[in-house]
Amino acid sequence: MTDLIVVGAGLTGLFAAWQAARRGAQCMLVTAGRGGLELSSGCLGIASSGPPLRQVAKAPLPHPYALVGLDALRRAVDDLLELLEASNLPYAGGLESNLELPTAAGGTACAAYAPRSLARFLDAGAGPVTLAGFTGFRDFDSVLASNRLSARLQRPVAAADLPLPGSLPLRDLYSTDLARRFEDPDWRAQACAAWRPILIGVRHLGLPAVLGFRQHASVIAAIEELLELTVFEIPTLPPCLPGLRLESVLREACLAGGVDLIEGATAIGRVDGRNAVTRAAGIVAQTAGGPQVIDAGAVLLATGDLLHGGLVARQSGRLQESVFDLPVVHSSNRSTWTAPHFSDPQPYATFGLRVDARMRPLGADGAPLMQNLFAAGGILAGARRTEEGSRQGIGLATAWRAVESALP
Ligand SMILES: Cc1cc2nc3c(=O)[nH]c(=O)nc-3n(C[C@H](O)[C@H](O)[C@H](O)COP(=O)(O)OP(=O)(O)OC[C@H]3O[C@@H](n4cnc5c(N)ncnc54)[C@H](O)[C@@H]3O)c2cc1C
Predict the structure, then answer these.
(1) What would the pLDDT profile of 245-295 be if each residue is shown by its tens digit?
(2) What number is the average pLDDT over the span 360-375?
(3) What's the rounded Cα separation, in Å, for the pair 330 and 315?
(4) Would the pLDDT of 218 be above 80?
(5) Which residue, among 139, 192, 141, 187, has the nearest Cα to 167 in the 3D structure?
(6) Which of 181, 228, 321, 362 has the least C-beta neighbours within 10 A?
(7) Domains of the chain listed by start with CATH number
(8) ∠ Cα 346 387 319 (to 5°)
(9) Nearest to 386 by CA among 104, 47, 62
(10) Can you tell me the distance from the alpha carbon of 91 to that of 93, in angstroms, rounded to the nearest whole number?
(11) How far apart are CA 285 and CA 244, in angstroms?
(12) Any bridge partners for residue 230, and if so which?
């Protein structure tokens, strides 16, 4: 019997499984698909609407931050930063203030922590920067980005277009195609030789975030040396390399820690109701080879919200939690689930599970439904993640607390 089954492989599930393995537990990670990290900029949003520490400290119950407390957040973030540093994917930032960094559309986004390759934009201070795109790469328009960023920050931002050496595929280039090419030293040297005359006088160069995947740190260092300037990355549309790099580090840390990984399997919860106290017995993993019954000492749901399968809206209007069919906090009037405009705060994004301070889902009476069932991350109710910019902070802090509760 495994000690802990974690369901879901987004930031929350991967971080939780790695934490469980670090504590010496036998952990199994079961997931239907990939989580949201490939869509993400790789930044860690804790509370982007103000100084993170202050915002977290004043979050009212039943906000997940109020349930887990500042200590869980700090310990989770410290653990992750240490792993990232050791994995050659260093991050910058802190809990006192947010970093304001450029987006591909020429706006800015705030996060407490960002990959150092993104945060190096701040090294330019108030001085001039140049944003460059690549000929044939449609996911980054340097003229649009530089014009809008210049207007937003009230400082000079130039644009450049850089040619890519060699033949291009007869389709649109993805960021992952380019990341692979940048890892080839000969191709990289050829590219930099072609760019040098275009970049005369440039000291701070912003490029779309395609500068390598596994060898990212050495790719950036090599480009800086060849071009004699500092380089920062700007996250692109998905697939987004900074999110993929973060996913890859966590995934590899899980595997190195001995986590058993089952991918492509939907989990159905199993309940043991034979005794007075109802317990989670484990799951049935619906694998390609047929159903697999897995017993566990505890189960942790990191299945995300409505967009990733943690919650499923039935045609009847019922909102169902996908693994154990747990009660979900939501409005029973379906016409109120969405706001009239796409960019407005969406009521459905606040739906989810109500949990106690140990991250155990609660029933209508306010008592934990099962002593050994836990939930963390996007599936929790009580937060407005998008408006708060708190998605990753909630995922990490609640995963940390849930693992601590499940494996005392
Ligand atoms: C279209 C879209 C765009 C997004 N854009 C952004 C963005 O720009 N910035 C940002 O910060 N965040 C974004 N997110 C959200 C973010 O990626 C995560 O969804 C969020 O951070 C919650 O993380 P999580 O780890 O809790 O869950 P998720 O990342 O949602 O992962 C849930 C995991 O659970 C698995 N799962 C669900 N149900 C089951 C089941 N029954 N059995 C087995 N496995 C199951 C899924 O396959 C997935 O691996 C976006 C999400 C979506 C869907």
Answers:
(1) 999 999 999 999 999 999 999 999 999 988 888 999 999 999 999 999 999
(2) 96
(3) 15
(4) yes
(5) 187
(6) 228
(7) 2-89+244-329+352-406 (3.50.50.60), 104-234 (3.40.50)
(8) 35
(9) 47
(10) 7
(11) 25
(12) 204
Question: What pLDDT is stored for residue 334 in this prediction?
Answer: 86
98 lines ligand 1 (CB under 6 A): no
Confidence of residue 49 (pLDDT cuts 50, 70, 90): confident
Looking at this protein, which amino acid is placed at residue 1? M
List C-alpha distances in Å: 37 to 19, 173, 367.
18, 20, 33
With both helix axes pointing from N to C terminus, report the angle between 11-22 and 70-86 in degrees, rounded to the nearest 10: 80
Instruction: List C-alpha distances in Å: 353 to 63, 219, 390.
Output: 11, 43, 17
The residues, ordered by sequence, that sit 6+ positions from 146 with a Cβ below 8 Å of its Cβ are 106, 130, 131, 157, 158, 159
Q: How buried is 6 (Cβ within 10 angstroms: 0-12 exposed, 13-18 middle, 19+ buried)?
A: buried
**Cβ contact 133:205 at 8 Å:** no
Q: Tell me, using a 6 A CB cutoff, whether residue 7 lines ligand 1.
A: yes
Cβ pair 187, 208 in contact under 8 A: no
pLDDT for 380: 98
Which sign, positive or negative, has the C-alpha torsion 34, 93, 80, 217?
Answer: positive
Residue of 341, 314, 347, 315 whose CA lies nearest to 329: 347
CA of 13 to the centre of ligand 1 (A): 10
Contact 294, 272 (CB under 8 A): no
Residue 124: C-alpha distances to residues 155, 205, 207 (Å)? 11, 9, 14
Q: Is the beta carbon of 40 within 6 A of some atom in ligand 1?
A: yes
The answer to whether residues 308 and 378 touch, using CB atoms and an 8 Å cutoff, is: yes
Classify 29 as helix, strand or coil: strand
User: Residue 287 has which token pair?
Assistant: 């694998």
14 vs 20: CA distance, rounded Å? 10
13 lines ligand 1 (CB under 6 A): yes
Which residue minimizes the CA distance to atom 18 of ligand 1? 36
Place of tokens 């108030």: 126
For residues 304 and 379, the answer to whether their CB atoms sit within 8 Å is yes
> Taking 80 as the threshold, does the pLDDT of residue 74 lie above it?
yes
DSSP 161-186: EE---S---SSPPPHHHHHHHHT-HH
* Mean pLDDT computed over 146-173: 93
